[in-house]
Amino acid sequence: MKKMVSFRAMPVAMLITVTSVTAACGNGGGEVTAAPQNETARPGATAGLDTHHPENAAFFERFRMPNALLVGPPENLAAGADAATAVIVAEVADVRRTRVVGPPEARVPMTGVVLRPVETLHGKLRPELKDVVVEFPGEATVDSPDSIAALRASLPQGKAVWFLRWQGTPPPTSKPGAGPIPQESRKFYGVVSLDGGMFVQGPENVVSPIAADSGETAGPPTMRKAGERFDKLSELAKRVRALD
């Protein structure tokens, strides 16, 4: 069977097309029951935030997209929260194929990570959406003929902090001549930045496993660097919660 193509192997020009979502696209199949939104924190919702799950890194690192940023990331957590529709604590409930985007010569499948929210730290999730699906471009794996099945077999444990941006709002930047936001995009969220858009508890401190340069401290300040200075994910959550 034909091996799936990783997002990491795609040319930058294709990545820009995907990020801009300039073409209408079809729905994927095989969806499972949605994970409902929950705006109200359950008792003990953030318990276990500081538990490190070593096996989770491999799952999230599949969504890394080196050299694919269209704009620089927010410079700190407050700026990241301002750019977000909502910042939530959530568990991963499922993955699914959401759609295929891009022009005919560069069609790209999109992978949706279905979240089960347990607390909203800042902002508000879109009330019209019955579930929270965070889209990432690409197959997210190169070693399986069925990428979604491979991801489902390794769903991460525990909770993470996600800085989510509803795709129904205009992006901060887009490809010149890009058309209006496709109606299909309004069903999904994205992370505010690939560099610090979500955080988990690492072995020694907080880490952003989808960030290509996670742990790197050189260069200008970013929300990823600010988040990774915390020893505990619960401390980062407390900092974001205090922004409201």
Notes on the structure:
This is DUF5642 domain-containing protein. The termini are far apart. The protein has helices spanning 12-20, 56-61, 77-83, 147-152, 223-227, 233-241; strands spanning 86-101, 108-123, 132-137, 160-166, 189-191, 198-201, 206-207. The chain has a domain at 54-167 and 185-213 and 220-242. It is globular and about 45 Å long. The chain has 6 helices and 7 strands.
Summary?
The protein has helices at 12-20, 56-61, 77-83, 147-152, 223-227, 233-241, and strands at 86-101, 108-123, 132-137, 160-166, 189-191, 198-201, 206-207.
Note the gap between the termini. Answer: 51 Å
Count of DSSP strands: 7
Roughly how much helix do the residues carry, as a percent range?
A: 10-25%
Q: What's the gyration radius in Å? A: 17 Å
| Unreliable parts | 1-34
Count of alpha and pi helical runs:
6
Q: What would the average pLDDT be, to the nearest integer?
A: 81
Largest sheet: 7 strands, antiparallel
Assign the structural class, choosing from mainly alpha, mainly beta, alpha/beta, alpha+beta, or little secondary structure: alpha+beta
The string of secondary-structure elements, in order, is: HHHEEEHEEEEHH
Keywords summarizing the entry:
single chain, alpha+beta, seven-stranded antiparallel sheet, 6 helices, 17% helix, disordered N terminus
Question: Which helices and strands, and how do they pair?
Answer:
Elements: H1 12-20, H2 56-61, H3 77-83, E1 86-101, E2 108-123, E3 132-137, H4 147-152, E4 160-166, E5 189-191, E6 198-201, E7 206-207, H5 223-227, H6 233-241
Antiparallel strand pairs: 1-2, 1-4, 2-3, 4-5, 4-6, 6-7
